[in-house]
Amino acid sequence: AQNPSFFEGFEDSLSKQWHLGINRDRDPLRQKGDARAIARAGLIQIVNQPVRAGAHAVRFEVPRRLGSFRSELALSAVPLFSDYWYGFSIFIPADWIDDPQDGDIVAQWHGSFGEDKKQFKVEGDGKGRPPVALSLHADRWEVAINSSAAVVTNAKDWENYGSKREKSDLGKFRKGVWTDWVFHMHWS
Predict the structure, then answer these.
(1) What is the distance between the alpha carbons of residues 103 and 100, in angstroms, rounded to a whole number?
(2) Tens digit of pLDDT for each residue in 23-53?
(3) What distance in Å separates the CA atoms of residue 134 and residue 181, rounded to the nearest whole number?
(4) DSSP code of 27?
(5) Handedness of CA 77, 79, 80, 81 (dihedral sign)
(6) What is the mean pLDDT of residues 69-74?
(7) CB 165 within 8 A of CB 125
(8) Can you name the residues that pair with 71 across neighbouring β-strands?
(9) Who contacts 98 (Cβ-Cβ below 8 Å, separation ≥6)?
(10) Bridge partners of 144?
């Protein structure tokens, strides 16, 4: 049996398993997919301070300017009805400033439907929200669960269904320290 475990300590460079996501799909840096250019721009880079363990960590920055809204790493999809554990640590810098309108998503899980080239992205509620998201808002950790009763056979099906968004306050966060997270997901 194949071991489904995956560990990334960011000790050397970004593993080829990661997909880089910055700004919009048509962003020139995103289209190139050049990790070095993205790092030079300060969006996603391997750093040696602060670190949780080992000698390196990955740092994400989303500059507060027009057209800049995403700096993220993603892994490929996992099978439907699979059972996964996700663990990671997040460091909120002392100079972090809240986006008072929306907060900041710091971890999210998206869905997809279909096979091969017919595959399309499935949002948690069909309105651009991921099924599960961990966010910072004001001085609080928040998790949002977004869902829909849609029976999806193509991307347009979302237009005819309502959606549900459940948010949970997970408590106050502290700046300048690492917070460890573990999520257990059963994808259905």
Answers:
(1) 6
(2) 777 788 877 778 888 888 888 899 999 999 9
(3) 10
(4) -
(5) negative
(6) 84
(7) yes
(8) 22
(9) 104, 136, 137, 138, 139
(10) 133, 167
DSSP SS3 for 14: coil
- 65 pLDDT band, cuts 50/70/90, is confident
Which residue has 């880089």 as its token pair? Answer: 20
Cβ distance 91 to 173 under 8 Å? no
- Pick the closest to residue 8 from 79, 57, 59, 51 (CA basis): 57
Q: What pLDDT is recorded for position 57?
A: 93
- Indicate the residue type of 3: N
Q: How far apart are CA 162 and CA 141, in angstroms?
A: 26
pLDDT in tens, 128-160: 678 899 999 999 999 998 877 766 666 566 566
92 phi, psi to nearest 5 deg:
-100, 115
Residue whose pair of structure tokens reads 């000790």 in the numeric block: 11
Residues in Cβ contact with 35 at an 8 Å cutoff, skipping those fewer than 6 apart: 13, 14, 20, 44
Residue matched to tokens 């390196």:
56
For 79, the token pair is 């099978």
Rounded CA-CA distance 6/148 in Å is 30
CA 50 to CA 91: how far, in whole Å? 8
What does the block give as tokens for 142? 């928040």
